[in-house]
Structure formats: C-alpha cells, structure tokens
Design brief:
Layout: E1 2-7, E2 22-28, E3 38-44, H1 45-96, H2 109-159, H3 164-192, E4 201-204, H4 205-222, E5 226-231, E6 237-240, H5 242-259, E7 263-270, E8 275-282, H6 289-294, H7 310-320, E9 324-329, E10 334-341
Parallel strand pairs: 5-7
Antiparallel strand pairs: 1-2, 2-3, 4-6, 7-8, 8-10, 9-10
Helix pairs in contact: 1-2, 2-3, 3-7, 4-5, 5-7
Catalytic activity: ATP + protein L-histidine = ADP + protein N-phospho-L-histidine
GO molecular function: ATP binding; phosphorelay sensor kinase activity
Subcellular location: Cell membrane
Length: 344
C-alpha cells in the first residue's frame, strides 16, 4: 500500500472534479483472474481540514467542561475544609479569652480528631484555670491569717494592751508558720516548673528509708508515738533524686505522725513487676470519704492539717520519678502507698 500526499487528479478527471489538493491511498489488488491491479482511494484535503477543526472544537469543549468541573469540585472541597478550620480558629480565639466552651463541628475524620483533641485541651485548661483560682484564693486566705495575727499582737504591744511575753510568743509562732507556708509554696511551684532540676542518680532506696525513719523517730517520740520499719531486702537500687525523695517520704511520715494514735509502720518490698512498693500506714482514725477524694489536692486540709501542701508535694515528686502514689484506709487506720520502678 502506498500513500501519496498531496495528489492532483488526472487530466481526464478535471471535468468531474475541481482542481484541488487531495490525499490518496493506492492499494494493490492481488487477483490473477482480474485485470484490476490497483485501487486508488483519495479524498480532498479541505475535508480533512474540516474534520480536524471539528475535532479541535470538540476537544476545546471537553477541556472547558473539565476545567469547569474541576473548578467547582475544588471550590466545594476547599469550602468543606476551610469552613471547619475557620470555626476552629474562632473557637481558639475564644479559648484565649478564657471562654472554655466545647465545640461540635460536622466534618471528616481528620478534622473530627482535631476537634476532639481541642475539646480535651479545653477541659484540661478549664480544670487548670479553676485550680489556679482556687489556689490563689487559698493562698490569700492562708497568708492573711498569720499576717493579721502578727499585726494585731504588734499593735497590742505598741498600745500596751497585751502582755509582751505572750505577744512575742504568738508573733514568733505565726512568723514560723508563715515561713513554712511560703517555703512550701515556693518548693511546690519549683517542682511544677520545667526548670526545676532533678539530679537523678542510682541510689539505695532502702538505705534512704532507714535514714528518714531514723530522723523522724525523734519527732514521733516527742508525741509519744513510735515508727516501726519492715524493709526487705536490705538494699534495693533505683534512679532518683535523693533530696526530693527524702522530702516526699518525710512529708508522708509527718502526716502519719500527726494522725496516728501510737505507731506508724513503714513497709517496703520488691514486687514481681520489678517495682518497689512502699506502704506507710498508721493506727489513726483513717481518712474520711471526702478526704480520700482530695487528699493530694493543694490546700485541702483534714481535721488536723496544717497547710494542705505536704502530700501535694509528695505526689509531684513521686510522679516525676515515674511512680504512683495512692491513699486508702485499712481496718486499723490510713495508709499511703507508693510504687517506684527499680533501677535497671
């Protein structure tokens, strides 16, 4: 088969067809019984050009329709994404103004996950904001009481309406109480801050318990009470800050001495999960139901509590050591249970 482009008609066909460019195809005929050897197929070039223009027009229309559909779809998709995000931005601005409201937005799974996380954040911020307000109210109350007492007795000394010895004793006691309160507040605020350094080192936890128990026995004996220890094995190692762990255990023992009738027990052992389980119990009246809910809450004081900060400090320290601390009652009194991981 041969292709000839362009092609002009033979002279004998000029009377039938106008003179113009043609495209022709010559096909050979392999038929011995026929005198026909070739067949020529040809058409005018202007027809091909017209077909080409038609195809170009169709393609242009298809391109326009496709672009229109793509524009509409992208506009719908962008609106579907931007509308929830705009609402979330407005909601976050409300949160910055301390308006802790929950938000519900119909959206896809990814946006819904973001909405759920923002609602969780709002709950925590609201809880923190409430705790901060309560904290400030309690601090102002705790600071106001000793300051007013000191001021009143100082004025009594100035005007000679109270005995000097009695006033001096009260002023010194209130000053000491105020000093302890401020120290505990500063210590607790440092524990909560990221900048507070923890000097972790491998130490003998049971040796630390013996040391703290020995130091607190004198305070217990002054109140007619006894500290008993049951520590097995004699030595167990963990990674921790010795000073802070010592303070946490001291606060718990101080709380036990305050409420115990006769004795405080320290029991420590290694559990099957390679954890140290420390239980400090007393034979006192135990925690009230309401106390158990708030025993580690800042400024929550029991019937004989001082500032409501000792157990809060202990909880913060234990949690920074990847441990847990809980409180409960036994048949004979109250207990504080601490779990800490053993050093690898």
């Amino acid at each position: 088969m041969q292709l000839y482009i362009p092609f002009r008609q033979p002279r004998e066909y000029n009377r039938l067809l106008p003179l113009s460019a043609h495209a022709a195809v010559v096909v050979r005929v392999n038929n011995p019984s026929s005198n026909l050897s070739k067949i020529v197929f040809y058409t005018r070039m202007d027809k091909i050009a017209e077909l080409q223009r038609t195809m170009n027009l169709i393609l242009l229309i298809v391109l326009f329709v496709a672009a229109l559909i793509a524009t509409l779809f992208s506009s719908y998709l962008s609106k579907k994404i931007s509308t929830p995000l705009s609402k979330l931005c407005a909601h976050i601005r409300n949160i910055s103004e301390r308006k802790f409201n929950r938000i519900q937005i119909p959206a896809d799974d990814e946006i819904l996950e973001l909405v759920d996380n923002i609602n969780i954040m709002v709950e925590k911020l609201e809880s923190y904001d409430l705790a901060q307000k309560t904290f400030l109210q309690n601090v102002s109350h705790e600071l106001r009481t000793p300051i007013m007492s000191i001021r009143s007795y100082a004025e009594g000394i100035e005007y000679g309406v109270v005995e000097t010895d009695e006033a001096v004793k009260v002023i010194l006691d209130e000053t000491q109480r105020l000093t302890r309160l401020v120290e505990n507040l500063l210590y607790l605020s440092r524990l909560d801050s990221i900048e507070e350094p923890y000097n972790f080192e491998v130490l003998d936890f049971h040796e630390l318990l013996h040391y703290v128990a020995m130091r607190m026995k004198g305070i217990a004996q002054q109140s007619g009470k006894e500290i008993c220890t049951k520590i097995e094995p004699e030595s167990v190692r963990l990674s921790g800050d010795e000073e802070k762990l010592s303070r946490a255990i001291t606060n718990i023992l101080d709380n036990g001495i305050r409420y115990a009738r006769h004795k405080i027990e320290i029991n420590s052992r290694i559990t099957g999960e390679n954890n140290i389980e420390l239980i400090i119990s007393d034979d006192g009246p135990g925690f009230d139901t309401e106390d158990l809910k708030n025993v580690f809450t800042r400024f929550y004081k029991g019937k004989r509590g001082h500032f409501g900060l000792g157990l809060s400090i202990a909880k913060s320290i234990i949690e920074k050591h990847s441990g847990t601390i809980t409180a409960g009652n036994t048949g004979e009194g109250a207990f504080i249970k601490i779990t800490l991981p053993v050093a690898e």
